[in-house]
Model the fold of this input.
Amino acid sequence: MRSFVKKKAPKVSAKARRDAVLRRITWRTKSTGNITFPAIPGLVDHYVEVLENLFAAMGRPFGKGAAASCRAMLAEKIEWAFERSHNASVSVDWKTDQGSATSLTYTVMGLAKTIEEAYAEWVKLRTPPLFGKHADARVMDLAATLGPPGEVTVLDAGAGDGRNSLPLARAGYVVDALELAPVLVEKLEAAARETGADVRSVCGSFYDRGLTLPRERYHLVVLAEVCSHWRGPRDLRNTLLRLSELVEPGGLGLFNVFLAHPGFKPNAVERDFSQIAWCPIYSRQDVAEACEGLPLSLIADESAADYEKAHAPKDGWPPTGWYVRWTSGSEVLDLPADQSQFELRWLTFRRA
Ligand SMILES: C[S@@+](CC[C@H](N)C(=O)[O-])C[C@H]1O[C@@H](n2cnc3c(N)ncnc32)[C@H](O)[C@@H]1O
Done:
């Protein structure tokens, strides 16, 4: 008779057996995905940490040297995108490798959209009214100080879909609307046709001196919420320079801009993020320097939210779901209202 030796199972704890199963499960788990970060140069190390944790959670931790090469890749793409646009992000696509429990492949891409591209997307994703139901109270009130509407010429630069241009024209002002994004010019023109508002529209950039505007000089030049697209002191200087060219002597320039409350000096991450979040932070010193040598004097500096809240029609406050968050700076620093570090201000200039 043949004898069979019965092999006894070595003792393996339940925990060790479970871990053994999970290793095989990881091996068979498939994952693909994307994560897109705002392109902020000073946050590269934070983004590497996020990716490290994300990949580790899928059982694919960074191997030796992988964090450093990921950092180098991210830094290069972030810098590329941030330099080109404030609509800048960095996108990471990953895919677990077939037949491996430990590796995945990822690619990093920098994305930089133009203002025109950003608004072409914006109008598809958002429900009108895009920037509010009513004109800015500050714009209407300032225009009213300039004389009978039929004798007052207004340039609404960065007019968007005509939130200010159309009510100004309906009130009798002589209005030219200048707008960079073709998709918004189309909306403005359609609304003007529909409501019979007499607005002359021009598609182009406020900073383009080659652009022919219907008039050479205006009693009032307005840039409402256009500061969302400025990058730094050079844009502020160019805005004031262009204002001084387009406003007639004695006329007014009005724009809103994010100003740091006294005592707040944004660090590099806060400053860069404020540009990406469409609320670039300036100081009053920046404004003073940008005005140097120009025939402009600052005659009013008011909180945009306080002014609009106090003067908006009953059904016009807040103008949009994001207005209060945006104007108080909490798109960048998610702090309670009483800890706000900067805010949107209406600045009014008179041309000598
Ligand atoms: C936040 S929207 C505000 C629109 C409008 N002023 C309002 O308050 O409802 C900013 C607008 O400025 C426009 N813009 C940005 N840069 C511009 C430029 N260089 N020249 C003309 N328009 C510009 C954008 O395309 C956008 O329509």
